[in-house]
Amino acid sequence: MSTPSVLGTWRRFSGSWPGRLLVSAAVWLRAPYFLTAAPVIRRLEPGRSEVSLRNWWLVHNHLGTVHAIASCNLAEYAMGVLAEATVPSTHRWIPRGMSVQYLAKAETDLHAVATFPTPPAFADEREDVDADVVITDAQGREVVRATITLRISPRPARASVAA
């Protein structure tokens, strides 16, 4: 029995605010580290994800702005749902590295857009692919830019169980 895909679940439930929250929360449960940041998926399709983060006290730094690591969490969450929506079930992915530029103080709710500038090939050999994540504030000003390198490889064949 296979688990439902994030994209399939998104397509089924994204028509309402409670549905979008339900899908976002399902991802939090799968990766509980995201619970404090509580990012919410706004749009999801193969090759693109849009995710938001509320500016609330659990993501603040000592200045009262969104903490740099909360911004990294938002970037990683956006990349993760992008990868889940894009990478076929024949392949798997894992983050290999992340570079981040903090461009301005994040003083409002944030919006992240993750894309693959060069689409993955999903070949028979493993490949490293970059996902670009642009994070903007409520005024549309870019506050963080991240590039996350993913290793995408074919899933190993599963051994069949004799009946």
UniProtKB/TrEMBL annotation:
<dbReference type="InterPro" id="IPR027961">
    <property type="entry name" value="DUF4442"/>
</dbReference>
<dbReference type="Pfam" id="PF14539">
    <property type="entry name" value="DUF4442"/>
</dbReference>
<dbReference type="InterPro" id="IPR029069">
    <property type="entry name" value="HotDog_dom_sf"/>
</dbReference>
<protein>
    <submittedName>
        <fullName>Acyl-coenzyme A thioesterase PaaI-like protein</fullName>
    </submittedName>
</protein>
